[in-house]
Design brief:
Length: 393
Amino acid sequence: MTPSARVQTAIELLDAIVQAARDGGASADRIVAEGFRQRRYAGSKDRRAIRELVYGAIRACGPLPQNGRAAMLRLAQSDSAIVALFDGSAYGPAPVAPDETPAEGGIAPAWLEAKLAKSGTQGADAAALLGRAPLDIRVNTLKAARETLALPIAAEPLAAPAGLRLPYGTQVEDWPQFRDGLIEIQDCGSQLACMAASAGPGETVIDLCAGAGGKTLALAAAMDNRGVLIASDTDRARLSRLAPRAERAGIAIVESVLLDPSRELAGLEPWLGNADAVVIDAPCSGTGTWRRNPEARWRLTEKQLARYVETQSYLLELAAALVRPGGRIVYITCSLLDAEGPDRIEAFLAGHPGWRADRPSLPLGRDYGAGIRLSPAVDGTDGFFIARLSGPC
């Protein structure tokens, strides 16, 4: 493909991504993958270049752009070489008209950018949310040790005791170490969030929003494969992906529980008042994960944010009913908005006399409200708020 044809293809993919963001459709990753399947003539270098253009344009736009062309023109403002490729050549984009306006830049839609600033994330801290994330892995200590594990390429040890960092784009899924369950892909911040649970052998631990089980696997390793570990979720498709991952990792203590929305306590009745720890990896805005999903900031609305906040408070109530006297709740959101972090903990503590914040001691992060904040700018991780609560005895 010519360079101009690559730009035009990126514009077409961006058109689909913009429309999907408006309609709540497929993710950018899925749209790009499907677009390449439909364009089998594109070679590996073409696909790599087109992907760079697509995600560069997404990161360059703050609010949702009008269309893919406007998004690409925004990217072109920081790369003059792109402007020259609007040349009207065969398979290339039409020349730029004198009255054409690029999409608006910035970090996010104005309302969301303002909420981030009010929550202490602005300037360079906010810009770091749109950087490119490295690839972090967690060594499965049930099968290997970080100090002795041999990998095909060199990896950087992380603050998380089992964490290693690899260059962006490393295809670890093709490695025998991945296929044999010696390593899992997991951001360093997510690994540290699991550390905050202090899960130990023989305990009863509930991963309340387990999803596909990334944190469940880390908790099982911390428990040395001994005890009771409940992985629950209301999403059947996501939860179904846990079993093969647990088998690959050599984990035998996980029991998956599919929950009926709004009837979660009924599904978890055998463990009411019995859990040593409940981990809440709460559904949230995902503002801390924009390095991986930059188009997510186009999908969030104030109404959706309010629903997330309501769900987070509901999950804290569920967790309080599940823990034994003196047990603990670990509350995690991959968000840098106060409404989804310290505000939720403050509201919970105000309504539950006898409960107290027990801030975890982690090798990264800074005290924030009653918990810990991790951020891409300061810690090199995804953005997280992590709080640990201890119940009355």
